[in-house]
Amino acid sequence: CKNPSNEDRECRDISFIQEIKEIDPDGEYATDFFLRLANFNRLAHVLRGQESFFNTVLTDAFTKGEYSQRLRNSVLLTSTIQSVFTQQDLSKYKQFMENLLLDSFNEAKNKNNKLTEAIFAYFIKLNYNSFETRKQEATQIASQLPEIQDSLVPAEFLNDNKITAKLYFYEDEEWYGITRDWLSQDGFRRENVDKKTTKHTKLYNGKSLEVIVTTDNSDVEESINNPEIDIIAHRGHSFHLTRDTFTSYIKSDAKKLLYLGSCGSSGSVPQLQSQFPNAHFIADEDTGRGADNHRILIGFMKQIADGEKDWSKIRENIYKNLVIVQWILWPHEKS
User: Fold this and answer.
1) Beta bridge partners of 259
2) What is the pLDDT of residue 130?
3) How are beta strands 231-234 and 207-214 bridged, if at all?
4) Distances from the Cα of 147 to the Cαs of 121, 124, 142, 311, in angstroms?
5) For 88, which DSSP code?
């Protein structure tokens, strides 16, 4: 690559990798660093043309550390792995990927390591139609695995003829006030609950839309277990997500939609799934944007009020009027 500052993307990516190797020649921190890129769905963009480097990162991510760490790594890498199987400019990695998934699955199965087997079984089931050299083997394994079920809006959401969302903010940013103003502009009627909380209501299609906006994060557990609240949204900085809002001691089997609106929040989904196994998740692989979060929230509340239960159709209908939400992960998406 003669001119790494030019417009050629692969040229820039190679230069970037070379700089990383100079900073960390022994690769001591490489896997953790590139998993952070995967958290924001950027890993595939910088590893083109670097097969051996990419392969090492993947192998380390799947084999090193405790099971909980490897499970989290697998979630972070799901979009990257799907890109390898679907994007032509990443096809050079496909053979390695097929071998890694199938060989790791077979090894775990032979050792009766059910947890590790499940990780690779999911990737095989998700991508087996795109395998090439070992497609027959992948298809055979996939045929013995349960189908990946489609996610639908819980019927309980409309039991009381209203849809209620509670949005948790923090006082170290301005989105609390901005969001209340947006709700007023959207025709919601505002009611002051206390100094930190307001409730906004609007009648839509015969259903009541209710949005509770607060900077009081002391009652998250109570809200999750409250049958009158359907949606719990974290709308603060990413470092608040599991430290201050969905803290590790909170656990619930409630069927809620957890809307994780902060930057790179998709990386916290594995931890939160273990705390809330029956929850649905909307999360962000990119920079959380307040305007996007607000439009999507109001959009899917209206779609649910209209009776739509299919998350894929809800997303499709909302995105007809939005062009800035490509990194949002929805409950029905297999990634």
Assistant:
1) 233, 282
2) 93
3) unpaired
4) 11, 12, 9, 18
5) G
